Amino acid sequence: MKVLLCTPYIESPDVVSSGIGTWARNIMQYNQETGNSIDIVPVSFDRKTHIEEYTVGGFKRYYSGIKEVGKCVVNAIRKIKTEKPDVVHICTSGYLGFIKDIILTHAAHKNGINSIVHLHFGRVPNITEEKGFEYRLLKKLLNEADKVVVIDRKSFYALSNLNYQNVVYIPNPISDPFLHETEKQRTEIKRKYKSAVFVGHVIPTKGVVELVKGCSKVPDLSLRIIGKCTEKMKENLLSLAAQREGGKWLDMVGEIPHNQVIKEMLQADSFIFPSYTEAFPNVILEAMICKCAIASSNVGAIPEILDVEGEMAGICFSPQSAEEVTNAVNMLYKDNAYRTQLTEKAEEKVRKKYTTKSVWPQLAKIWESGAEQKKE
């Protein structure tokens, strides 16, 4: 069986890194290592243009996006014709990206090939409620695609309630290389009490201002912020941190290699993530497997991942509030036994539900189903 996988997947300083790219590399590596009879042919939809946050929604963003993605679409259509795959699997982050998804599904059907569209974002419920331009594009895509994969249950229910029968829920798995490296480092590293860590792009919408303000109110807590950061943002956060102990409790680490991120997570005893908006953040799974006690904003699939309505594997709070951050972190440190219980449950849940081994059969099943329909 041959699957044409239209996705970002290249790992290089020359391309914009993305969660979709991490997912794709992990899936392709697992397929190769396990020797499955599936031939995955990747088609790159990687972006080389880094667009800073201030241009979001601006002309520069749209122009560069159309130019880069347009070339990828032409290449993908050519591959559809020459590779003659059994299934075309299209990964998308939505909005104007839906236009290229519609074009690709149409091209697949024109060549008698089934299409699978993978929605790698968690704002589907908002899109269906607002019923704006993005909803109209999504609706057309849902009608065009043979299967639509969503990564969280809220999205699945939102589309199922609109009577779409072609929707499948498949969560993202944790990266196998991250899992293996964590096991290798775990016994060598000692955890520090009341040491918190944040990992992510250090921009306002990741809640970093509220993070520093909120953590500054927690006595004896140290915080390390890891990720790409401008000098202006660094100065702003250090200035906010100076309100306690002259700011010595905060370390701005910057970007570091992934194996060092693992070391940081294994050393920290808590992971704080106050992002305004997320889909299915891999970093939450990574913090869970590293046994950090997690306090995160209740956005995207995070409440589902942490099972906040069942056997809790972490604490959730409302975004855009420094006070909520303070309260959540204080709750983590109120009871050592409770914090340990959260970390044990978190690791157990990742190993049971969010490994590539557990997710792979679900993915292979929809590919096989698409291939069988093509034969018929």
Offer a few descriptive terms.
alpha/beta; globular; Rossmann fold; 49% helix; 376 residues; 15 helices; 6-stranded parallel β-sheet
CATH superfamily of the largest domain: Glycogen Phosphorylase B
Instruction: Please state the CA-atom Rg, rounded to the nearest Å.
Output: 21 Å
What is the domain total for the residues? 2
Examine the coordinates and then state which fold CATH places here, giving the name of the CATH topology of the largest domain.
Rossmann fold
How much helicity do the residues have? 40-55%
What's the total helix number? Answer: 15
Given as residue ranges, the uncertain stretches (5+ residues, pLDDT < 50) are 51-58
| Overall SS class | alpha/beta
Task: Give the CATH class of the largest domain.
Answer: Alpha Beta
Average pLDDT reading: 92
Please state the overall shape, judged from the principal axes of the Cα atoms. globular
